[in-house]
Amino acid sequence: MRRAQLLLVVLLLAGCSQRYSAPGLGDQEDPALSGNGRLLVSVVDRGGRRSLRLVERSTGRELPLPGLRQGQPHRSPSLSWTGRYLAFIRQRGTRPEAVLLDRLSGRLQPLALPNDRLPERLSLAPDGQQLAVQVLRRGQLDLELFRLPALEPDLPAGAPLP
Amino acid sequence: MKLAWTLLGLVLLSGCQGLRLQPLMGVNTRLSTPGDDRSPSMARQGVVWIAPGPAGQHQVRWFDLASGMGGPLPGLNRPDAQPISVSVDAKGSRIALVRSLDGRTELLLYNRNLASLRPLMLVPAGVPARVALSADGQQLAVQVSRGGRWEVEVMRVP
Asked: Which CATH code for domain B35-156?
């Protein structure tokens, strides 16, 4: 009886998580979720190329990310509330570069860090108005915060405007 | 004509420079620590990250942007544990953590309001690496190693 109860608990717990593999994909790493978890972005290995994969979780459908073919490998993705903004790091030659994709306009823009800093990891605030960056500077990893004043806030549905 | 070319050049250059970032100068100087700071995660009014502790070990820290001060995380950090990845929800009330302790790597959820820490079980078992909470704090995505492969899974955290 006890064993049956344990099995039930394990089955219930197993049912609480979802995995997102697909044919042809290798390792999946570095996940990030949109505000309510509707969208999942991760870095996937596609035949040796490490690129971002955005999935709508309710359907399992992969959503297009136009303009992201250049500058692989990608890493450290971060999504805003609705998933409108996607910040990540891409490789430009020998230098990593932080970039932001506005999925509403399709515009991909570099995030211009001060010259002596190289981005290592990113985290976008839920409303897209601030960005935390782990930067490599003079051989040390530092945390720096930035405002993104040019971006329209990305708020959850029904939230009051700032 | 020369003016037109100059204007065109300026427009093109401004496009190349990318999106303007304004450093939070007063905050950044207070976040700065000797040693490596890693794994930042932004809430609406704060940030968590892994910073060097006073005795050389790493620990999770919380900085409140509204008050401009760091805040305590009672019960979260242990001197014998090594934090690996950390993520916070938008309110700054839930913190997901992957840490190494006694040769094991574990996934945990910390409630800042209750100062409570509880483990989250991976089924089937796996070794967690990076973790990400949704901004509403209801879902958690984790990178897990199973059978020599990295997988990503999402779980609900009630």
From this structure: 2.120.10.30
